[in-house]
């Protein structure tokens, strides 16, 4: 099961020499030639895959200067450098077979915010939403809006001259760039800004490459103005890449940034930017209009634009139906009610904003009156989303459109290769009608969404790129769409950049294309910076633009994986690179290991990429991973331990096996399942992680900690008989040191000293068995509940289990205690899948027998409880027992509140469990409704991961990452809100992490607050 790398995967000698010189030249950032990092950086959100030679991660602009200086030396003119930001490009802009220069890991500082003059200075790796979060307290924002705003970097936005929703009002990124600092090949820094004639003459007189580039650009602007005006279409989106049309600003000043914005890293490295920022509108309203046809929505948008809204976004029925199956729908369903007779096949989202609420309200009123007076375009109705929070929720659905399209059923998935066309808005409906006819002629399905106010529509044809015949359609469809956009006065690339579709640039520019070549030569005479994109130096006749079908496609590599295998691992293979898992927001659950490490191998996209490549290499070695897995799950093989020992020794002696790099990526996963819930394509890392671990440890020895964790549910009931002895031993310094260094476990939790059986006797808890429950009357069943125990709250946090029993009892329910049995989650997480299968089937059958009585089964810890509806369901299907979360059950049994919220009670704040809120998204609101029925108020704090996630935080190798994860979100929230004493957490691991990190500070479970209130009510009634 070894995954060998062939010579074609090794670094070329000239790159080895360059990287060695780079380190000795004083480069201080990471230099990463490992195959895992190269594999992850070989893809973006496009259809392409290009394996780079290595990756470097500059610490600062000085590192970038060091890199560019060395690359500019004559002996390294064959070294190719390509800048990379968020890696969300749809056209392969940052893909290279050379050296990736990733500016997103360390150049992430917001350097200065000038509130009075409304500008900011930032490094190139700052994420757009990160910047706006820092600006929000000042009432300001950076305007260009993107669907990928939570992971797109400012440098990437500048390099693609990005724009999106609202661009007709706010413009593109270029319109907000005041100054740029770019490092040119050779190490010179170019300070780009608007220059008057005197400043321009002085700058052009200086020595160096920057002055040469200025002279070239000035000559083009002055001598070819008429040709530029003729060739550049007058569109809101203008033209990404070497924007010659705006070298001269309206006031006559010369601005080289017009060329740098949209240059896709082909001219230099943008390390710092000074940006214009705007006041946040105080009020916003979104009018959500539903249509009986998508073409009706498109044609209506033209008329609606006359009423001057901020923006109009459109979504077709395919995206809408996918959204309804996604986590995002829980927040927006109220705005898109079902029509009783006619299905919704398209929607328009029309935004109005302003600072004067009466004036804005009047504009919206007039707009709604227009809708009501004009019943054309097949409108089915409309709703209003009022206020910033509501508008953001609806836009969150629209932003997920790209990812949602990747989650359609079947192997044919929407592919981005003709998906950002732009035409004059008045031509859009006719253009799309022909576009659809073209795709219909090929028998293809497709999804559509976009910015109809700007004439931009994202169209993604569904293709199975693993099928050579379908992949071959890329060329004819691209050619046809390129011609179609020209017919309607538009562009093939409206806002996502040219990248590996640059081959159409000479056709569009015609006799102006040599001017682009001249610019490229002035900045990059030897074609070292992201070659093959936008333009090539005319002085190098061997340099060519990349042909869109001459670059390796991801599907080409995927089709080499055995069909049975990729179908079995489809959640990894179907990752489309959208990068939703790169979300910067520390108060979002996705993805904690990525946020803490900034290492893209430690992300769902990274792990999916690695599994895909590992499966491919296994196939090359002739390994049938499915047969291997089946053999391992059958049971013990006499010689297997010896083979594992031999292979592990070989590893220590330096055996090369890509599997080790994959293992490091998988071992860093918290198995929190946030990816499974939040990824639009539902990439489920914990699922394929456990399968990989099973196979990996079929070849290599397991660490001792795997056995300790996997056996936890079996050993703890026995050890709990001697809690003082157990706690004393694990607190004994030599044993604690042994556990940390030899067993790989740290900060092991202490067993509870409380007498659980005494509490059961006090509240008359009865043992649950199928016969006893079957004898209950209907009335008795309705007033009974079965408590399904878990090892963590039962033995380590017994007080919570006891409080749960008391709460249910005080509410008038007879509690039955299901016999303690291993749930199996620790086994599944560590990849003991054969044993997990046996445990889950045995426990599932026992719980199903109890459920047959009609008495509700309720679990306490969300992570353990959700295993029944996820992993158990895959094994047991329809025979899976229904074990409810505690709030689900409480919501069913509690009566509606009559007295309202108690005035003397504080507002409690919930820190929700990651797995629960991402995989059972209704659960958080259910807690709030439970509190309302008790007359209490509960708000939910936006929070990321606590960093514990089961036993992850107790593993020595994860300790520092666990602490970093905690500090990013929970640590800050505890510091801000903890002194009020109103924080609650319903996850066992979350509460234990707080206790560990905050020196014993305890955060109650929500049920404990409910119990306290029920006690008070009971005492009051007695009095």
Characteristic terms for this protein:
44% helix; 50 helices; globular; 6-stranded antiparallel β-sheet; 13% strand; 8-stranded antiparallel β-sheet; 28 strands; 1023 residues; alpha/beta; 4 domains; Uridine Diphospho-n-acetylenolpyruvylglucosamine Reductase, domain 3; single chain
Layout of secondary structure:
Blueprint: H1 13-24, E1 30-32, H2 35-40, E2 54-57, H3 61-71, E3 81-84, E4 99-102, E5 110-114, E6 119-123, H4 128-135, E7 140-141, H5 154-159, H6 167-170, E8 177-183, E9 189-195, H7 197-204, H8 209-223, H9 225-231, E10 254-255, H10 257-260, E11 269-276, E12 278-279, E13 283-291, H11 294-305, E14 311-316, H12 317-324, E15 346-354, H13 357-373, E16 379-386, H14 388-399, H15 401-405, E17 413-414, E18 421-422, H16 428-441, E19 446-451, E20 456-463, H17 468-471, H18 474-487, H19 505-509, H20 513-523, H21 554-558, H22 563-568, H23 570-573, H24 592-597, H25 604-620, H26 625-634, H27 640-652, H28 658-667, H29 674-678, H30 685-696, H31 704-710, H32 712-719, H33 723-731, H34 733-741, H35 756-762, E21 766-767, H36 770-774, H37 778-782, E22 784-788, H38 791-796, H39 798-810, E23 814-817, H40 825-830, H41 833-851, E24 856-859, H42 862-869, H43 871-876, E25 883-884, H44 886-893, E26 907-911, H45 914-919, H46 922-933, E27 937-940, H47 959-968, H48 970-977, E28 983-985, H49 988-997, H50 1006-1022
Parallel strand pairs: 2-4, 3-4, 21-23, 22-23, 22-24, 24-25, 26-27, 26-28
Antiparallel strand pairs: 1-2, 5-6, 6-11, 7-12, 8-9, 8-11, 9-10, 13-15, 13-16, 14-15, 14-19, 17-20, 18-20, 19-20
């Amino acid at each position: 099961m070894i995954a060998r790398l062939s010579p074609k995967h090794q670094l070329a000698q000239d790159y080895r020499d360059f990287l060695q010189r780079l380190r000795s030249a004083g480069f201080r950032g990471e230099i990463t030639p490992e195959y895992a990092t190269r594999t992850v950086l070989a893809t973006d959100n496009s259809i392409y895959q290009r394996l780079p030679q290595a990756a470097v991660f500059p610490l600062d602009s000085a590192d970038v200067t060091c890199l560019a200086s060395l690359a500019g030396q004559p002996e390294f003119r064959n070294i190719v450098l390509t800048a990379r930001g968020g890696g969300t490009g749809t056209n392969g802009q940052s893909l290279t077979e050379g050296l990736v220069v990733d500016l997103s890991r360390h150049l992430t500082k917001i350097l200065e915010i000038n509130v009075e003059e409304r500008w900011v200075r930032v490094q190139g790796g700052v994420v757009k939403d990160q910047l706006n979060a820092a600006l929000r307290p000042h009432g300001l924002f950076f305007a260009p809006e993107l669907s990928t705003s939570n992971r797109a970097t400012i440098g990437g936005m500048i390099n693609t001259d990005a724009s999106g929703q609202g661009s007709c009002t706010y413009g593109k990124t270029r319109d907000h760039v005041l100054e740029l600092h770019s490092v040119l090949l050779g190490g010179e820094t170019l300070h780009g800004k608007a220059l008057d004639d005197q400043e321009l003459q002085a700058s052009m007189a200086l020595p160096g490459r920057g002055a040469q580039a200025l002279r070239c650009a000035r000559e083009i602007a002055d001598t070819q103005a008429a040709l530029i005006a003729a060739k550049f279409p007058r569109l809101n989106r203008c033209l990404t890449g070497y924007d010659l049309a705006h070298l001269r600003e309206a006031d006559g000043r010369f601005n080289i940034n017009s060329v740098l914005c949209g240059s896709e890293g082909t001219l230099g490295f943008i390390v710092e930017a000074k940006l214009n920022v705007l006041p946040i509108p105080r009020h916003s309203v979104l009018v959500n209009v539903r249509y009986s046809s998508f073409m009706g929505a498109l044609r209506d948008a033209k008329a609606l634009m006359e009423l001057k809204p901020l923006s109009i976004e459109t979504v077709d029925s395919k995206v809408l139906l996918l959204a309804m199956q996604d986590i995002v729908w829980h927040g927006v369903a109220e705005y898109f009610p079902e029509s009783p007779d006619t299905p919704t096949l398209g929607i328009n989202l029309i935004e109005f904003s302003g600072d004067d609420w009466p004036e804005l309200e009047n504009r919206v009123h007039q707009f709604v009156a227009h809708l009501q007076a004009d019943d054309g375009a097949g409108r089915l109705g409309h709703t209003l989303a009022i206020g910033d929070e509501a508008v953001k929720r609806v836009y969150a659905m629209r932003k997920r459109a790209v990812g949602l399209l990747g989650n359609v059923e079947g192997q044919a998935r929407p592919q981005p290769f003709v998906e950002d066309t732009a035409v004059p808005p008045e031509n859009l409906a006719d253009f799309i009608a022909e576009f659809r006819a073209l795709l219909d002629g090929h028998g293809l399905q497709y999804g559509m969404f976009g910015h109809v106010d700007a004439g931009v529509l994202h169209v993604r044809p569904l293709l199975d790129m693993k099928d050579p015949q379908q992949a071959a359609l890329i060329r004819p469809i691209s050619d046809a769409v390129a011609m179609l956009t020209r017919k309607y006065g538009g562009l093939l690339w409206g806002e996502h950049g040219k990248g590996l579709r640059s081959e159409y640039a000479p056709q569009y520019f015609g006799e102006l294309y040599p001017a682009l070549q001249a610019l490229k030569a002035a900045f990059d005479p030897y074609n070292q910076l992201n070659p093959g994109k936008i333009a090539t130096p005319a002085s190098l006749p061997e340099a060519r633009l990349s042909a869109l079908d001459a670059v390796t496609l991801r599907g080409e590599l995927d089709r080499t994986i055995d069909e049975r295998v990729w179908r079995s691992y489809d959640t990894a293979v179907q990752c489309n690179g959208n990068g939703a898992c790169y979300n910067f927001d520390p108060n979002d659950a996705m993805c904690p290991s990525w946020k803490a490490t900034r290492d893209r191998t430690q992300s769902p996209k990274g792990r999916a990429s690695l599994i895909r490549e590992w499966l491919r290499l296994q196939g090359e070695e002739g390994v049938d991973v499915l047969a291997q897995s089946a053999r391992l799950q059958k049971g013990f093989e006499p010689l297997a331990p010896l083979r594992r020992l031999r292979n592990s020794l070989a590893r220590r002696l330096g055996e090369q096996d890509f599997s080790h790099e994959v293992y490091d990526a998988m071992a860093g996963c918290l198995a929190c399942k946030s990816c499974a819930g939040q990824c639009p394509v539902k990439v489920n890392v914990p699922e394929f992680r456990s399968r990989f671990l099973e196979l990996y440890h079929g070849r290599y020895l397991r660490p001792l900690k795997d056995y300790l964790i996997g056996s936890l549910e079996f050993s703890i009931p026995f050890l709990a008989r001697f809690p003082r002895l157990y706690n004393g031993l694990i607190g004994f310094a030599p044993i604690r040191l042994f556990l940390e260094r030899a067993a790989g476990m740290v900060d092991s939790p202490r067993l509870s000293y409380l007498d659980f059986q005494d509490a059961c006797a006090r509240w008359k808890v009865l043992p649950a068995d199928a016969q006893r429950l079957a004898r209950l009357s209907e009335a008795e069943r309705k007033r009974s509940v079965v408590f399904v125990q878990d090892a963590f709250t039962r033995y380590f946090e017994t007080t919570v289990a006891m409080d749960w029993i008391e709460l249910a009892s005080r509410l008038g329910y007879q509690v039955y205690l299901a016999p303690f049995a291993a749930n199996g989650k620790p086994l599944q997480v560590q990849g003991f899948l054969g044993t997990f299968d046996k445990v889950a089937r045995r426990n599932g059958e026992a719980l199903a027998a109890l459920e047959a009585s009609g008495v509700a089964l309720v679990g306490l810890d969300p992570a353990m409880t959700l295993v029944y509806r996820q992993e158990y369901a895959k094994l047991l299907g329809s025979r899976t027992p229904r074990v409810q979360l505690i709030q689900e059950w409480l919501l069913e049994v509690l009566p509606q509140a009559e007295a309202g919220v108690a005035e003397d009670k504080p507002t409690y704040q919930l820190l929700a469990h990651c797995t629960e809120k991402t995989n059972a998204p209704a659960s958080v609101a259910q807690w709030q409704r439970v509190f309302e029925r008790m007359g209490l108020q509960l708000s939910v704090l936006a929070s990321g991961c606590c960093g514990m996630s089961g036993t992850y935080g107790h593993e020595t190798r994860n300790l520092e990452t666990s602490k970093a994860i905690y500090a990013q979100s929970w640590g800050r929230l505890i510091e801000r809100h903890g002194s009020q004493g109103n924080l609650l957490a319903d996850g066992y691991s979350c509460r234990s992490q707080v206790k560990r990190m905050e020196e014993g500070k305890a955060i109650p479970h929500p049920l404990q607050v409910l119990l306290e209130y029920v006690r008070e009510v009971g005492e009051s009634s007695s009095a």
